[in-house]
Amino acid sequence: MKRILILTALVVALQAKAQKKDDLLAYQVPYFTWGKGLGITSPDSAFLMNIRFRLQNRIGITTISGSDFSVNEVEARVRRLRLRLDGYLYNPKLTYVIQLSFSRGDIDFEDSGFPNIIRDAMIIYNFNRHFALGLGQTKLPGNRQRVVSSGDLQLPDRSIVNAVFNIDRDFGLQAYYRSRFNRFHYVLRGALSNGEGRNFNTAQKGIAATGRIELLPLGEFKNNGDYFEGDLAREPKPKISMGITYSNNENAKRAGGQLGKFLYEARDIKTSMADFLLKYNGLALATEFIWRDAENPITYDPANPTVQQHVFVGHGENYQASYVWKNNYEVVGRYSRVTPAPEIQTLDPRTQQVTLGVNKYLRGHRVKLQTEFTYETFTWLQATRPNSDGWIWRFQIEAGI
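Above: the chain sequence. Below: its structure as tokens.
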């Protein structure tokens, strides 16, 4: 009997101690860390949230023509204002990404008709360091310049090739696999998505299938340098990445598949992409080629056949070169060209841009000053309208954590 009493008292004491520990845990504050953003970890380490923001404030001027430098248009706006949350939930393998946008030019208002602030909303399970599977809305595995964050660009905006042909974001299932043979690394990405773009509730019958392969024959880049522009990491040895993407969007309702004005009839849109990247000791060279095809790309309003909306079929090419000095000044040159296919050459001109940019990195891509001068030409290949040209100047400050 005495032993039973002693054992009971011991159990009660242990329970009281555990309860006291739980009560103390409830009053403990989270752990805060500072690195890539502000990190918050729950006292029991079951939840991690990393908070980041960034903004891009821009001014710009467009001239009337290439010879008349009178001001045609003035740009003065917050180009991007983003809030990003990421971390894990109850298990470090179960991660999430949330990204919201708030500036008018960043919410797809003109094409979608509503303030589309949700950019990313993704739940990802990381099976191991090689393979991950995610469900939700985020960027599709498209061309390299689109996959690179807009906060990691060398110039204020991506190229006109990306603006016309990129496949942007979509909701669906995405898979990611990364491995290597000796020093030969490779990345496989795939997605099955609804094909409608950001934040649409219903979809046409059909699906968008996208696949991408990246080959890194000389090994991995420092600090994931194949996913930010410019060689800020100053690769000590040459590094190369080659990428190929193919996307088939069945019954797309919008002119760009996931982006653009709404068509009057759905179309199957096929997009092929190829890109190349080289970085070494401050030098960076990048190229992209994109082709888009759709059968019968022009659609007409049934109520008024004189009104049309079309898929931009054709091809684009982009060439970009840069050098960053050790004092973090950088010079960038870019040539871009978008050529419409014969079916739409009476509707769209061939567009070319030649750009020279100068940057000052104050804290890498997080805080930087950017300026660019661009000469732009519009050439009507079937001479249905007069050709034109003009100059663009932009200055942008980016700040973020």
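Residues 29 and 43 are 7 Å apart (CA to CA).
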